[in-house]
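Everyone, describe these C-alpha cells:
***
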Amino acid sequence: QVQLVESGGGVVQAGGSLRLSCAASGLTFSSYGMGWFRQAPGKEREFVAAISLSGGITYYADFVKARFTISRDNAKNTVYLQMNSLTPDDTAVYFCAARRSGTSRSRYEYEYWGQGTQVTVSL
C-alpha cells in the first residue's frame, strides 16, 4: 500500500520560512517523479514544484519566484519543499504527489497523493 505523509506545516508570519517533508512508503521511490501542489479555500489545486526521479531536474510555478526549493533524498524516500519569504497568499493545504517514471505540472497525471499539510501565513 502506497503512503505519502506530509509534515512540517504550521503557522508562520509573513516573511518567514517553513520546510515541508513528504515521506513515501510502499513504492520504489526512485522510480517516481515527485510534485508539490497546494489548494487554498475555494480554489483549485495548483502546481507548486516538481522534481525528477534522480533529483537533477526541477520545475516551479511562476509564483514561486525563487522563494521555494524542492529536493529529494532517495535514500530516505523523502521529498522536501523549502519555502522562504512566505506571504499570506501562500496560505493553503500543501500536498505531495507521486508520478511513476516522470514529472508533470498537471495534477491529473499523478497516481498517488498525500493527505496534505496546512500552511498558514499571517501578517
User: Anything to note?
Assistant: DSSP finds no helices and eleven strands in the chain. The mean pLDDT is 97.
